[in-house]
TrEMBL record:
This protein's name: Complement regulator-acquiring protein
Keywords assigned: Plasmid, Signal
Family annotation (Pfam families): PFam54_60
InterPro entries with a match to the protein in the record: Borrelia_lipoprotein_PFam54/60
Species of origin: Borrelia miyamotoi
NCBIfam families assigned to the protein according to its UniProt record, in alphabetical order: borfam54_1 (NF033728), borfam54_2 (NF033729), borfam54_3 (NF033730)
Signal peptide bounds: 1-19
Segments crossing the lipid bilayer: none
Amino acid sequence: MKKNILNNTFIIFTLVAFALTSCKPIDSLINDNKKNTSNNIQGDDSSQQASSDTNLANANLEDANDAKQPENSNEASKPLIDALNKKITEEQEMAKGKQESDEQHGMKTDVFKKLTNSSNQKTYDEIENKTLREQFYASLNWEKTTIEDFGKIIGQIEKDDTNKGTLPKDLIDAGHKLQDGFEKIVNQIDLKKDKLNDLPYEKMTELKAKFDEIDSLKQNWINLVKEIVKDHTDDKDSIKNDVKKLVDYIKPKYDSKIKSELDKIATTNDDIKTILDTIK
């Protein structure tokens, strides 16, 4: 029995010793727990900091984007609108205070009295056709010398039995038709000038391009007339005193540069109206 007691005591001692050597001290366990807790806290702080940094970056990006956005989303249209309004103002100012002379800038007797307006059966010199005449003058920006010199050339052609009535009428009507269409476009845009910012940039670009088409046609007409006047004065290719040569010189230039483009005026006018009608 004594032997059993000793054996049991030895076993208990061995187990206690093993337990003591295999377990960490309490302080170590506490420190480990603190360390784990600290790591967890630091991990949470890192995640929170990363999230905060991301949110701040996003906020800064949004602020930057907001800064790039103009107060008016159509701010890009402003140069187009300014240029368009400038051209319209110039056109309106050009005609202010202009009056036809009693002799209709030298064209009354040799030109206007000899041509008949098919729409009212009145000759061009009569009061019923005053608007037609004034639009012809305006097509040349009411430049007195250019109008009078060109009128003399048209009168020279009208005096020729072979060429009278056709080319002279075509030239007068071209100036009238071009200016009539141009004035309609100017008036349309002028009515909506305070609301042009309401147009999307793409539509504003299209409007400016359409206007430029007719403005360019008018400038081509003015340039052609001045070229004809200069070449006539210089007697280029002996056109000054030979009506046939003069007609042969003018007609191809007129047909290719002006006549072929006149039909586009009405279409362009309609296109501009369609664009402007989108403004409420």
